[in-house]
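My current task is to audit a protein record that another person submitted. I have pasted the whole thing underneath without changing anything:
***
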Amino acid sequence: MRRSWLPSLVGALVLALSATARGAEIYGDYLEARSADVWTGPCFANAEAGLVGREAILAWHIQKGAWHGVPLDGLSVVGVVKAKATLGDPFATPYPARAVIIVDENASPDQRAALLALAQDMTGEMLMSVVRTEVAPIRLEVRHDRDHPTTAILEAGDLATVETRTLNENDRHCGNEETYYPPLAATSSAMPAVSVLDRYRGPGLGVTWTTRDKRNAFVGSFAR
């Protein structure tokens, strides 16, 4: 009988998160969903490259810490991206990408600026071309129990929604699945997941989408 690879991997990630967070100035939860599979086989990935994968939703919830001296405890920020090519494709040029930033309605003006700066630092070039900034209530919950280590829910007003579930053996389509693409942002730990729902209904990018049951998500943590 094949042994599950999830329990040992989860345990290692939990230990890494604990050790990293203890020495970090700012840390929290991270969620990502994009329009291409990230946990997949090369045959599936090659079939999607150049056709999909230009869009992504990235979200951070700060558990504790400050950025450039501005305290951000309990706040969240979301970046929504429309790139020129498949994000993560080493043979493509996706930048400059268009980005919509959604900042927490509970943040002050200084905190909103710090949240944007944090998201941009975490993603490099990807969120540098901001075409629109929205203020909305943001709920990002990542469940850290051992039974469901990669489940998360994001609600950013009525603009963006992501809900994930844990990968299982039924998600293997070709038998050669792996984490084909790494996360788009700097993380201290991240596990691939299935998005039960991945939706963006906001303005600014010239495109909206609703995707269901795709192996296109990462759930994890960040620390700096």
Summary: Residues 203 and 219 are 25 Å apart (CA to CA). The radius of gyration is 17 Å. The longest strand covers residues 55-67. Helices lie at 6-22, 42-48, 109-123.
